[in-house]
């Protein structure tokens, strides 16, 4: 409802993503959810439209835009299927560490393929015993001559199997814990690297989530990103940059759910009139619209803040992720309620949207962790 004074280029990005959503995603969203399929066709359409390269600098094959443009694409795609937008956004998540810490040779080697969508990326931090407590990772990467040898297991990795490029956080100095962590580029097909089982998920079923196994996986030492010991900081900076994208997913998903339920409520006749005429129903939609607009404003402001070159982005990034995804959970649950029995049936997309929303409150850092980060940043900002 609000005008965010987007530039012509930004409006074009929304139009392009919207066309892809309508033509290549919406007609199949139900089927992909039921069959738990990550279909390449919408990804090809995004690749053809240059969406994968939105925030990648032009010198590395991208379009040279920023976080806001990427968020606009993610938001728009998420309206149609947040599972599909997860594959797209997670590839961006995997590209950030290369942008943050890669040297010129690494950027030249990997970013053009990511920007064009020819290769997908994945970001591998989480392990069976290291989720919220990311510094508890156990995977090691020990130097042997001109190689690093990786051993360990990564868990719940989005784009596992479909990605060609994996950013893996592993300990080069296990005694030092998180301060001994480093970031590596691992390629699909590297010896000793195997993709584990595909998880069966509540939602986001059009995206793949797998384990990754490293068993004496030998990679050239040139695959180290930045310096040894920088891995944890690179991971945290990556998440600072990518979390507004999860907020954008939430805004798009909530918008889609609200529009679906609104259309239903205006057509569904009960007691001789559309159910939208009942105040309990219309006020629920008013509440949805308010919360979605507030979430969108926070996501766009955070994206613009990041694009301004600001350094202290952790708090805003965490706020945009936690606030918007809580809104999406609330809105999608209310959308199911507003559609009654239709909302509960798997023939319609409302219940899928509610299942999809749940993951947004969990991945890229639970909303409890986001609140820890916000509180930590608050204490730093308001000194006694
Ligand atoms: N940017 C730069 N540096 C950061 C940082 C950031 N956003 N966040 C932390 N650091 C630095 C700290 O300054 C500290 O540096 P020193 O060792 O030099 O003091 C170091 O990293 C460790 O920070 P901290 O003590 O805050 O780490 P914790 O182990 O307490 O963990 C949380 C911090 C909980 C915030 C982190 O583990 C986290 O984000 N967990 C969630 C992980 C996640 O999102 N998982 C999802 C899977 S990836 S899709």
Describe the structure.
- The protein has 384 residues and is of the alpha+beta class.
- The protein contains ten helices and ten strands.
- Strands 1-4-5-8 form a four-stranded mixed β-sheet. The protein has a four-stranded antiparallel β-sheet with strand order 2-3-7-6, with helices on one face.
- A hairpin with a 2-residue loop joins β2 and β3.
- α8 runs antiparallel to α9.
- The two termini are 40 Å apart.
- Coenzyme a persulfide binds next to α6 and α10.
Question: Mind sketching the topology for me?
Answer:
Layout: H1 8-35, H2 40-48, H3 67-80, H4 82-101, H5 104-116, E1 121-124, E2 140-144, E3 147-158, E4 165-171, E5 181-187, E6 193-198, E7 209-220, E8 224-225, H6 231-267, E9 269-270, E10 273-274, H7 279-307, H8 314-344, H9 350-360, H10 367-381
Parallel strand pairs: 1-4
Antiparallel strand pairs: 2-3, 3-7, 4-5, 5-8, 6-7, 9-10
Helix pairs in contact: 1-2, 1-3, 3-4, 3-6, 4-5, 4-6, 6-7, 6-8, 6-9, 7-8, 8-9, 8-10
Short synopsis of the structure:
The protein has 384 residues and is of the alpha+beta class. It has ten helices and ten strands.
Q: Can you tag this structure with a few keywords?
A:
four-stranded mixed sheet, globular, 10 helices, four-stranded antiparallel sheet, alpha+beta, 384 residues, 54% helix, binds coenzyme a persulfide, 15% strand
Which of globular, elongated, flat, extended, rod-shaped describes the shape? globular
Instruction: Give the SSE string.
Output: HHHHHEEEEEEEEHEEHHHH
Helix percent reads 40-55%
Number of strands: 10
Strand content: 15-25%
Ligand list: coenzyme a persulfide
Kindly name the structural category: alpha+beta
Terminus-to-terminus distance: 40 Å
Mean of pLDDT: 98
Strand order of the largest sheet: 1-4-5-8
The tally of helices reads: 10
Largest sheet: 4 strands, mixed
Radius of gyration: 21 Å
Unreliable residue stretches: none
